[in-house]
Write a structure and sequence with these properties.
The protein has two domains: 30-118 and 259-319, D-Maltodextrin-Binding Protein, domain 2, CATH 3.40.190.10; 120-257, D-Maltodextrin-Binding Protein, domain 2 (3-Layer(aba) Sandwich), CATH 3.40.190. The protein has twelve helices and ten strands. The protein has helices at residues 2-30, 44-58, 72-80, 91-99, 151-162, 178-186, 202-208, 224-231, 269-281, 283-289, 298-301, 311-319; strands spanning 32-36, 63-67, 86-90, 111-127, 142-144, 172-174, 192-197, 215-217, 236-240, 252-264. Strands 1, 2, 3, 4, 5, 6, 7, 8, 9 and 10 form a ten-stranded mixed β-sheet that branches. Strand 1, helix 2 and strand 2 (63-67) form a beta-alpha-beta unit. The termini are far apart.
Length: 325
Protein backbone atom coordinates (compact mmCIF):
# COMPACT_ATOMS: atom_id res chain seq x y z
CA UNK A 1 0.00 0.00 0.00
CA UNK A 2 2.73 2.35 1.10
CA UNK A 3 4.65 1.65 -2.13
CA UNK A 4 1.68 2.43 -4.44
CA UNK A 5 0.97 5.65 -2.60
CA UNK A 6 4.53 6.86 -3.03
CA UNK A 7 4.35 6.08 -6.74
CA UNK A 8 1.20 8.19 -7.08
CA UNK A 9 2.74 10.91 -4.99
CA UNK A 10 5.91 10.79 -7.10
CA UNK A 11 3.87 11.00 -10.31
CA UNK A 12 1.91 13.93 -8.87
CA UNK A 13 5.16 15.68 -8.01
CA UNK A 14 6.57 15.10 -11.49
CA UNK A 15 3.27 16.35 -12.94
CA UNK A 16 3.45 19.46 -10.77
CA UNK A 17 7.06 20.04 -11.79
CA UNK A 18 6.17 19.78 -15.48
CA UNK A 19 3.32 22.21 -14.97
CA UNK A 20 5.71 24.70 -13.41
CA UNK A 21 8.14 24.25 -16.31
CA UNK A 22 5.37 24.95 -18.82
CA UNK A 23 4.00 27.97 -17.01
CA UNK A 24 6.74 30.54 -17.64
CA UNK A 25 6.60 29.92 -21.40
CA UNK A 26 2.83 30.36 -21.47
CA UNK A 27 3.03 33.43 -19.26
CA UNK A 28 5.79 34.91 -21.41
CA UNK A 29 3.84 34.43 -24.58
CA UNK A 30 0.79 36.05 -23.17
CA UNK A 31 2.86 38.97 -21.98
CA UNK A 32 4.81 39.77 -25.10
CA UNK A 33 3.31 42.81 -26.74
CA UNK A 34 4.12 44.49 -29.99
CA UNK A 35 3.64 48.26 -30.28
CA UNK A 36 3.17 49.36 -33.89
CA UNK A 37 4.42 52.86 -34.67
CA UNK A 38 5.30 54.43 -38.04
CA UNK A 39 8.31 55.19 -40.23
CA UNK A 40 11.79 55.90 -38.87
CA UNK A 41 11.66 59.63 -39.74
CA UNK A 42 8.64 60.49 -37.56
CA UNK A 43 7.81 60.73 -33.84
CA UNK A 44 5.76 57.52 -33.38
CA UNK A 45 8.80 55.29 -33.78
CA UNK A 46 11.13 56.83 -31.16
CA UNK A 47 8.22 57.40 -28.78
CA UNK A 48 7.00 53.81 -29.23
CA UNK A 49 10.53 52.58 -28.56
CA UNK A 50 10.57 54.61 -25.35
CA UNK A 51 7.21 53.14 -24.31
CA UNK A 52 8.37 49.59 -25.04
CA UNK A 53 11.48 50.10 -22.91
CA UNK A 54 9.48 51.58 -20.00
CA UNK A 55 6.81 48.87 -20.06
CA UNK A 56 9.42 46.09 -20.29
CA UNK A 57 11.29 47.62 -17.36
CA UNK A 58 8.42 48.34 -14.97
CA UNK A 59 5.58 45.88 -15.69
CA UNK A 60 6.55 42.49 -14.24
CA UNK A 61 6.65 39.70 -16.83
CA UNK A 62 5.97 42.03 -19.77
CA UNK A 63 8.19 42.16 -22.86
CA UNK A 64 7.25 45.02 -25.19
CA UNK A 65 8.82 45.78 -28.57
CA UNK A 66 8.21 48.65 -31.01
CA UNK A 67 7.79 47.92 -34.73
CA UNK A 68 8.35 50.14 -37.79
CA UNK A 69 5.19 50.29 -39.97
CA UNK A 70 3.47 52.36 -42.66
CA UNK A 71 1.54 54.21 -39.92
CA UNK A 72 -2.00 54.54 -38.56
CA UNK A 73 -4.02 52.61 -41.14
CA UNK A 74 -1.59 49.68 -41.20
CA UNK A 75 -1.41 49.68 -37.38
CA UNK A 76 -5.18 49.46 -36.99
CA UNK A 77 -5.32 46.54 -39.43
CA UNK A 78 -2.55 44.74 -37.50
CA UNK A 79 -4.45 45.24 -34.23
CA UNK A 80 -7.56 43.83 -35.87
CA UNK A 81 -5.69 40.78 -37.18
CA UNK A 82 -4.27 40.08 -33.70
CA UNK A 83 -0.74 40.68 -35.03
CA UNK A 84 -0.03 43.46 -32.55
CA UNK A 85 -1.50 44.54 -29.23
CA UNK A 86 -0.88 48.27 -29.01
CA UNK A 87 -0.87 50.83 -31.82
CA UNK A 88 -0.23 54.48 -32.45
CA UNK A 89 -2.95 56.10 -34.56
CA UNK A 90 -4.25 59.46 -35.58
CA UNK A 91 -7.76 60.09 -34.25
CA UNK A 92 -9.29 60.32 -37.74
CA UNK A 93 -7.92 56.96 -38.92
CA UNK A 94 -8.99 55.44 -35.58
CA UNK A 95 -12.49 56.81 -36.07
CA UNK A 96 -12.79 55.28 -39.56
CA UNK A 97 -11.58 51.91 -38.30
CA UNK A 98 -14.02 51.95 -35.39
CA UNK A 99 -16.92 52.94 -37.68
CA UNK A 100 -15.89 50.50 -40.43
CA UNK A 101 -15.88 53.18 -43.14
CA UNK A 102 -13.63 54.28 -46.03
CA UNK A 103 -10.36 52.28 -45.86
CA UNK A 104 -12.00 49.97 -43.30
CA UNK A 105 -15.21 49.19 -45.22
CA UNK A 106 -14.61 45.43 -45.05
CA UNK A 107 -12.42 45.56 -42.01
CA UNK A 108 -14.16 47.18 -39.01
CA UNK A 109 -11.84 47.31 -36.00
CA UNK A 110 -13.04 46.97 -32.41
CA UNK A 111 -10.51 49.61 -31.40
CA UNK A 112 -10.38 51.00 -27.87
CA UNK A 113 -8.32 53.96 -26.71
CA UNK A 114 -5.65 53.49 -24.05
CA UNK A 115 -4.58 57.15 -23.94
CA UNK A 116 -4.60 60.40 -25.87
CA UNK A 117 -1.01 61.34 -26.75
CA UNK A 118 -0.17 64.67 -28.41
CA UNK A 119 -1.55 66.76 -31.26
CA UNK A 120 -0.28 65.74 -34.67
CA UNK A 121 0.47 68.68 -36.88
CA UNK A 122 -0.09 68.65 -40.61
CA UNK A 123 2.97 70.02 -42.40
CA UNK A 124 2.72 71.07 -46.04
CA UNK A 125 6.40 71.37 -46.88
CA UNK A 126 8.10 72.86 -49.91
CA UNK A 127 11.33 74.75 -50.53
CA UNK A 128 12.24 78.10 -52.09
CA UNK A 129 12.26 77.98 -55.88
CA UNK A 130 9.31 75.65 -56.50
CA UNK A 131 6.83 78.51 -57.08
CA UNK A 132 4.50 77.10 -54.41
CA UNK A 133 3.16 79.70 -51.96
CA UNK A 134 -0.34 78.40 -51.18
CA UNK A 135 -2.34 75.16 -51.39
CA UNK A 136 -3.88 75.98 -54.78
CA UNK A 137 -0.33 76.18 -56.24
CA UNK A 138 0.05 72.42 -55.70
CA UNK A 139 -2.10 71.71 -58.77
CA UNK A 140 -0.05 69.99 -61.47
CA UNK A 141 3.02 69.72 -59.22
CA UNK A 142 4.86 66.59 -58.05
CA UNK A 143 3.62 66.09 -54.51
CA UNK A 144 3.98 63.29 -51.96
CA UNK A 145 0.79 62.75 -49.97
CA UNK A 146 2.43 60.41 -47.43
CA UNK A 147 3.20 56.70 -47.46
CA UNK A 148 0.53 54.22 -48.49
CA UNK A 149 -1.26 52.98 -45.38
CA UNK A 150 -0.51 56.10 -43.35
CA UNK A 151 -2.75 58.53 -41.54
CA UNK A 152 -0.82 61.27 -43.36
CA UNK A 153 -2.24 60.12 -46.68
CA UNK A 154 -5.83 60.06 -45.36
CA UNK A 155 -5.48 63.59 -44.01
CA UNK A 156 -3.52 65.01 -46.98
CA UNK A 157 -6.26 63.99 -49.42
CA UNK A 158 -8.84 65.61 -47.11
CA UNK A 159 -6.91 68.89 -46.86
CA UNK A 160 -6.66 69.00 -50.65
CA UNK A 161 -10.34 68.12 -51.15
CA UNK A 162 -11.31 70.92 -48.75
CA UNK A 163 -9.84 73.44 -51.21
CA UNK A 164 -11.19 71.67 -54.29
CA UNK A 165 -8.12 69.66 -55.32
CA UNK A 166 -8.33 65.95 -56.13
CA UNK A 167 -5.05 64.59 -54.72
CA UNK A 168 -5.07 61.62 -57.06
CA UNK A 169 -5.85 63.50 -60.30
CA UNK A 170 -4.95 67.18 -60.01
CA UNK A 171 -1.30 66.62 -59.10
CA UNK A 172 1.45 64.10 -59.77
CA UNK A 173 0.97 62.01 -56.66
CA UNK A 174 3.86 60.25 -54.96
CA UNK A 175 3.33 58.15 -51.81
CA UNK A 176 6.40 58.56 -49.59
CA UNK A 177 7.07 58.65 -45.86
CA UNK A 178 8.75 61.61 -44.17
CA UNK A 179 12.37 60.52 -44.60
CA UNK A 180 11.82 59.44 -48.23
CA UNK A 181 9.99 62.69 -49.04
CA UNK A 182 12.90 64.71 -47.73
CA UNK A 183 15.38 62.79 -49.88
CA UNK A 184 13.13 63.21 -52.93
CA UNK A 185 12.72 66.98 -52.46
CA UNK A 186 16.50 67.38 -51.96
CA UNK A 187 17.01 65.54 -55.27
CA UNK A 188 14.30 67.76 -56.85
CA UNK A 189 12.22 64.67 -57.67
CA UNK A 190 9.18 66.21 -55.93
CA UNK A 191 8.11 69.81 -55.36
CA UNK A 192 6.28 69.46 -52.04
CA UNK A 193 5.14 66.89 -49.50
CA UNK A 194 2.54 66.38 -46.82
CA UNK A 195 3.54 65.07 -43.43
CA UNK A 196 1.52 64.78 -40.24
CA UNK A 197 3.66 64.49 -37.15
CA UNK A 198 4.91 65.91 -33.90
CA UNK A 199 7.18 68.90 -33.48
CA UNK A 200 9.89 68.85 -34.43
CA UNK A 201 9.82 65.93 -36.88
CA UNK A 202 13.40 64.68 -37.37
CA UNK A 203 13.17 64.39 -41.18
CA UNK A 204 11.87 67.96 -41.58
CA UNK A 205 14.56 69.25 -39.20
CA UNK A 206 17.12 67.55 -41.47
CA UNK A 207 15.68 69.18 -44.61
CA UNK A 208 15.62 72.63 -43.01
CA UNK A 209 19.26 72.27 -41.96
CA UNK A 210 20.45 71.24 -45.45
CA UNK A 211 22.90 73.79 -46.94
CA UNK A 212 21.54 75.63 -49.98
CA UNK A 213 17.90 74.84 -49.17
CA UNK A 214 15.34 77.15 -47.58
CA UNK A 215 12.27 75.40 -46.27
CA UNK A 216 8.77 76.84 -46.72
CA UNK A 217 5.71 75.68 -44.81
CA UNK A 218 2.41 76.32 -46.60
CA UNK A 219 -0.41 77.66 -44.40
CA UNK A 220 -3.58 75.57 -44.68
CA UNK A 221 -5.80 76.13 -41.63
CA UNK A 222 -8.60 77.35 -43.94
CA UNK A 223 -9.29 73.65 -44.68
CA UNK A 224 -10.50 72.81 -41.13
CA UNK A 225 -14.19 73.71 -41.46
CA UNK A 226 -14.76 71.82 -44.72
CA UNK A 227 -12.83 68.82 -43.35
CA UNK A 228 -14.97 68.63 -40.20
CA UNK A 229 -18.16 69.10 -42.19
CA UNK A 230 -17.23 66.16 -44.39
CA UNK A 231 -15.71 63.81 -41.80
CA UNK A 232 -16.87 64.67 -38.29
CA UNK A 233 -15.36 66.78 -35.48
CA UNK A 234 -11.86 65.42 -35.81
CA UNK A 235 -9.69 68.40 -36.74
CA UNK A 236 -8.67 71.63 -35.04
CA UNK A 237 -6.84 74.76 -36.12
CA UNK A 238 -3.27 74.84 -34.90
CA UNK A 239 0.02 76.63 -35.48
CA UNK A 240 3.57 75.43 -36.11
CA UNK A 241 5.46 78.11 -34.16
CA UNK A 242 8.12 80.22 -35.91
CA UNK A 243 11.58 78.73 -35.48
CA UNK A 244 10.36 75.13 -35.09
CA UNK A 245 12.58 74.45 -38.10
CA UNK A 246 15.73 76.29 -39.21
CA UNK A 247 14.91 79.18 -41.56
CA UNK A 248 11.17 79.06 -40.71
CA UNK A 249 10.83 82.74 -39.86
CA UNK A 250 7.07 82.96 -39.30
CA UNK A 251 4.42 80.82 -37.62
CA UNK A 252 2.50 78.52 -39.97
CA UNK A 253 -1.26 78.10 -39.30
CA UNK A 254 -2.04 74.43 -39.84
CA UNK A 255 -4.50 71.61 -39.15
CA UNK A 256 -4.06 69.50 -36.00
CA UNK A 257 -5.42 66.05 -35.22
CA UNK A 258 -4.84 64.20 -31.94
CA UNK A 259 -2.79 61.03 -31.73
CA UNK A 260 -4.14 58.16 -29.70
CA UNK A 261 -2.67 54.93 -28.39
CA UNK A 262 -5.13 52.12 -29.08
CA UNK A 263 -5.67 48.41 -28.56
CA UNK A 264 -8.53 46.10 -29.47
CA UNK A 265 -11.36 45.01 -27.19
CA UNK A 266 -9.62 41.69 -26.44
CA UNK A 267 -6.92 43.14 -24.18
CA UNK A 268 -7.56 42.32 -20.53
CA UNK A 269 -8.58 45.13 -18.19
CA UNK A 270 -5.56 44.36 -15.97
CA UNK A 271 -3.13 44.72 -18.89
CA UNK A 272 -4.71 47.95 -20.16
CA UNK A 273 -4.68 49.38 -16.63
CA UNK A 274 -1.01 48.44 -16.10
CA UNK A 275 0.07 49.97 -19.44
CA UNK A 276 -1.72 53.30 -18.90
CA UNK A 277 -0.73 53.63 -15.24
CA UNK A 278 2.94 52.90 -16.00
CA UNK A 279 3.15 55.30 -18.95
CA UNK A 280 1.57 58.15 -16.97
CA UNK A 281 3.73 57.49 -13.89
CA UNK A 282 6.95 57.26 -15.93
CA UNK A 283 6.14 60.21 -18.19
CA UNK A 284 9.47 62.00 -17.40
CA UNK A 285 11.31 59.02 -18.92
CA UNK A 286 9.20 59.33 -22.08
CA UNK A 287 9.82 63.09 -22.29
CA UNK A 288 13.55 62.30 -22.19
CA UNK A 289 13.04 60.21 -25.36
CA UNK A 290 10.96 62.81 -27.24
CA UNK A 291 9.64 66.14 -26.00
CA UNK A 292 6.20 65.63 -27.61
CA UNK A 293 5.56 63.33 -24.62
CA UNK A 294 5.13 66.52 -22.56
CA UNK A 295 1.65 66.75 -24.12
CA UNK A 296 0.57 63.40 -22.61
CA UNK A 297 -1.61 65.00 -19.99
CA UNK A 298 -4.74 64.13 -18.01
CA UNK A 299 -6.41 67.31 -19.28
CA UNK A 300 -6.36 66.10 -22.91
CA UNK A 301 -7.75 62.62 -22.29
CA UNK A 302 -11.36 63.75 -22.49
CA UNK A 303 -10.95 65.80 -25.69
CA UNK A 304 -8.73 63.86 -28.06
CA UNK A 305 -10.39 60.49 -28.69
CA UNK A 306 -13.45 59.97 -30.90
CA UNK A 307 -13.56 56.26 -29.95
CA UNK A 308 -14.34 54.76 -26.52
CA UNK A 309 -11.64 54.08 -23.96
CA UNK A 310 -10.71 50.55 -22.96
CA UNK A 311 -12.36 49.75 -19.58
CA UNK A 312 -8.94 49.14 -17.97
CA UNK A 313 -7.66 52.55 -19.15
CA UNK A 314 -10.91 54.20 -18.09
CA UNK A 315 -10.59 52.72 -14.57
CA UNK A 316 -7.11 54.21 -14.13
CA UNK A 317 -8.14 57.61 -15.53
CA UNK A 318 -11.26 57.76 -13.34
CA UNK A 319 -9.09 57.01 -10.28
CA UNK A 320 -7.12 60.11 -11.32
CA UNK A 321 -10.34 62.15 -11.53
CA UNK A 322 -10.57 62.13 -15.33
CA UNK A 323 -13.96 61.44 -16.93
CA UNK A 324 -13.72 59.80 -20.35
CA UNK A 325 -16.17 58.15 -22.77
Amino acid sequence: MHHVYSNVARRALIGAALLVLCLPAAAQQQNRISITTGGTGGVYYPLGGGMAAILSKYVPGLQATAEVTGGSVDNLKLINAGKSEVAFSMADAGWEAYQGIDKFKDNKVNARTLMVLYPNKMHVVTIEGTGIAKLSDLKGKRVSTGSAGSGTEVMALRVLAAVGIDGRKDLKQERLGAAESVNAIKDRKIDAFFWVGGLPTAAVTDLAATPGIKIKLIDHDEAVEAMNKAHGPLYVKGVIPAGTYAGQDKPSPNVDVWNILVTNDKMTDAMAYAIVKTLFEKKPELVAVHKEAQNIDFKYQAVGSPIPFHPGAKKYLEEQGVKVN
